[in-house]
Amino acid sequence: MSTPPRPGTPAPASGRVPRRAMLGAMAGALAAPLIGAPRAARAQAGADYPSQPVRYINIFPPGGATDTCSRIFCAKMSEIAGQQFVVENRSGSGGNVGAEAIARSRPDGYTLGLGSIASNAIAPTLYAHLPFDAGKDFTFVSGLWQLPNVLVVNKDLPVHSVPELIAQLKANPGKYAYGSSGIGTTPHLSGEMLKQKAGVDILHVPYRGGAPALLDLIAGRVQLIMDNLPGYISAIQDGKVRPLAVTGPKRSAVVPELPAMGEIVPGFEITSWGALCGPAGLPRLVVEKLSALTKRALESPDLVRRYEELGATPWWTTPEEMTAFRASEQARLAPLIKASGARVD
Question: Which tens digits make up the pLDDT trace of 50-66?
Answer without folding.
Answer: 999 999 999 998 988 89
